């Protein structure tokens, strides 16, 4: 199949959707499909993939949202003869299948800014040009099924499916759910085992210390404050590595106030994230909202039991007490601390880590790519074509 893939930027260093795009593209190419990537820019595009540049204004976020969408729509009109079906990973109204990879922006706002649930709060957030642009574009895409602009929606978690049904009335029969895949060859604990000691030394973490990893950019949404509070109730001697891009100032102060600053290391955004997983014993991720955290899945692949919340779509692949522990929300400090206490047992950690690795191996990229092709074929038939 000739697949058109729309994404704002093709660059795996930027985040989860970009890593997903790269994993999917490589799997599609390996299976013999052709991929035309439509993006404003690309870095390390796989051999065999073609890049079609989408013009955009990059100086202001709302302008970037609208100009990329408009440019991509015009480009799609020209590209229709060169691709069989289009999968959208960016906010563009006209595409055959739109992947709701980041979840509903409306739900995201409610989780991270609860005051937006009120009428006044809803009106206030729309005064922000950025949020107003994102919400308007989201509505246009998620109601696009009514006019045939978007034929199907791909969600990476059941909670995302439920959000777009509740918020935008998307019919259930237009939605497919596929959990994210993970590259278990890249994230292989045996491959990175030898890096453990060096990684710990570079971070100043004692060799034998029970060590948790928090990995994610945007510390408030990802729940770093909740992780620090949990650390205050963790077994004495437990360490926390924080990997991600954000201003750590207020969190350093919070760690000092909680008395755990000496056992919390801020490593910044890491290109060598595998080494951070190798340095850790377990993964701590009490997020306020994540459609499906790739970092959680990568941790499982690296044999790390994960502690997270039901607000993380990746919790749907975790059986509580087997591959990790799932609490209701980040405010459950006692539940988080109890999970940290249980995972202080090396024997239990090893057993759960083995379960975690096995679970990740069921989410391989090749079967996921095959399932995506079937969804695109269904969209072609809905459009009146032949798959």
In short:
The protein has helices at residues 16-30, 61-79, 105-112, 119-125, 129-142, 158-168, 189-192, 196-203, 219-222, 224-232, 249-258, 273-279, 294-301, 333-342, 346-361, 365-382, and strands at residues 2-6, 9-10, 34-39, 41-42, 50-53, 85-88, 95-100, 150-155, 175-177, 211-215, 239-243, 264-268, 282-285, 306-309, 324-327.
Provide structural commentary:
The strands form three sheets. The chain has a seven-stranded parallel sheet, with helices on both faces. It has a six-stranded parallel sheet with strand order 12-11-10-13-14-15, with helices on both faces. The protein has two domains: 2-181 and 364-382, Glycogen Phosphorylase B (Rossmann fold, 3-Layer(aba) Sandwich), CATH 3.40.50; 189-361, Rossmann fold (3-Layer(aba) Sandwich). Strand 8 (150-155), helix 6 and strand 9 (175-177) form a beta-alpha-beta unit. It is α/β, with parallel strands linked by helices and 387 residues long. The protein has helices at 16-30, 61-79, 105-112, 119-125, 129-142, 158-168, 189-192, 196-203, 219-222, 224-232, 249-258, 273-279, 294-301, 333-342, 346-361, 365-382, and strands at residues 2-6, 9-10, 34-39, 41-42, 50-53, 85-88, 95-100, 150-155, 175-177, 211-215, 239-243, 264-268, 282-285, 306-309, 324-327. The chain starts with a strand and ends in a 5-residue tail after the last helix. It contains 16 helices and 15 strands. Helix content is 43%, strand content 17%.
């Amino acid at each position: 199949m000739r697949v058109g893939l729309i994404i704002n930027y093709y660059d795996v260093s930027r985040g989860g959707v970009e890593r997903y795009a790269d994993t999917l593209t490589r799997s599609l190419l390996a299976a013999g499909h052709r991929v035309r990537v439509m993006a404003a820019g690309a870095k390390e595009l796989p051999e065999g993939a073609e890049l079609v540049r989408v013009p955009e204004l990059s100086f202001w976020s709302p302008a970037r949202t609208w100009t990329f969408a408009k440019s991509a729509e015009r480009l799609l009109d020209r590209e229709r003869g060169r691709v069989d079906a289009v999968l959208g990973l960016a906010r563009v109204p006209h595409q055959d299948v739109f992947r709701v990879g980041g979840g509903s922006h409306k739900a995201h706002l409610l989780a991270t800014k609860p005051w937006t649930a009120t009428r006044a709060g809803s009106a206030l957030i729309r005064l922000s040009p950025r949020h107003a642009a994102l919400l308007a574009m989201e509505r246009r895409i998620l109601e696009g099924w009514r006019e045939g602009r978007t034929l199907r929606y791909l969600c990476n978690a059941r909670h995302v499916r439920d959000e777009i049904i509740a918020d935008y009335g998307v019919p259930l029969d237009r939605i497919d759910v596929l959990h994210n895949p993970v590259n278990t060859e890249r994230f292989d604990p045996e491959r990175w085992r030898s890096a453990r000691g060096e990684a710990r030394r570079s971070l100043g973490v004692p060799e034998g210390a029970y060590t948790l990893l928090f990995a994610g950019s945007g510390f408030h949404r990802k729940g770093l404050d909740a992780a620090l509070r949990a650390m205050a109730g963790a077994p004495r001697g437990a360490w926390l590595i924080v990997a991600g891009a954000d201003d750590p100032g207020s969190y350093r102060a919070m760690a000092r106030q909680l008395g755990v600053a000496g056992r919390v290391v801020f490593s910044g955004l890491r290109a060598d994230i595998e080494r951070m997983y190798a340095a850790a014993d377990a993964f701590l991720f009490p997020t306020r909202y994540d459609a499906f955290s790739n970092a959680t899945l990568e941790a499982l692949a690296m044999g790390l039991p994960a502690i997270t919340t039901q607000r993380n779509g990746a919790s749907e692949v975790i059986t509580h007490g087997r591959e990790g522990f799932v609490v209701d929300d980040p405010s459950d400090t006692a539940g988080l601390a109890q999970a940290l206490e249980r995972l202080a047992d090396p024997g239990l950690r090893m057993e759960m880590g083995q379960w975690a690795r096995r679970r990740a191996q069921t989410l391989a990229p090749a079967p996921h790519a095959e399932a995506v092709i079937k969804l695109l074929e269904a969209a072609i038939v809905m459009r009146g074509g032949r798959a």
